[in-house]
Amino acid sequence: MKIYALKENHLFSKAYKNGKKAGGKYVCVYLLPDYHAARLQRANPLKSRINRIGLTAAKKLGGAVVRNRTKRMMREAYYRLLKTYEIQTGKIIVIAARSAAVKVRTPDIYNELEEAFSALGLLRAKLSDDLQ
Predict the structure, then answer these.
(1) Domain locations in the chain?
(2) Could you give the CA distance from residue 130 to residue 25 in angstroms, rounded to a whole number?
């Protein structure tokens, strides 16, 4: 499953300023309704609504290698969440790494993303084990 990346700086800023926020020790998740979801749905080959995901890791986390590793772990945790749960679509989701995320592994970030997504009301239902 492809992640549709959030690229526009103004959308990151809107998510930080106006979006709902849920966070933990390792990551913070910002949620904003995507007002262009219908347009993107028509452009999508599967004709389904999508989430646009933005991953951020500030320079204070470390060098480029550390920041990219942190973003890879957050991306993998999001993939695992997609495989495990049915997630609401038509949203802009920004996942920001915190300083403690540098020293942990993907399962720790996954657990925190799961808690944050459920706090924001994004998780609909757990998918059956037959599909996994």
Answers:
(1) 4-126
(2) 33
User: Over the stretch 94-127, which tens digit does the pLDDT of each residue have?
Assistant: 999 999 999 999 999 999 999 999 999 999 887 7
Q: Are 68 and 101 in contact (CB under 8 A)?
A: no
Q: Which residues of 105-130 are buried (b: 16+ CB within 10 A; e: fewer)?
A: eeebbbebbbbbbebbebbeeeeeee
Per-residue model confidence as pLDDT tens digits over 50-104: 889 999 999 999 999 999 999 999 999 999 999 999 999 889 999 999 999 999 9
CA distances from 5 to 2, 74, 94 (A): 9, 13, 10
Distance CA 32, CA 15 (A): 6
Q: Answer for the pair 117, 29: CB distance below 8 angstroms, yes or no.
A: yes
Torsion of the alpha carbons at 76, 41, 57 and 66, rounded to the nearest 10: 40
Tokens 């347009």 belong to residue: 39
- C-alpha closest to that of 114 among 27, 19, 17: 27
Its CATH class, for the domain covering 4-126, is alpha beta
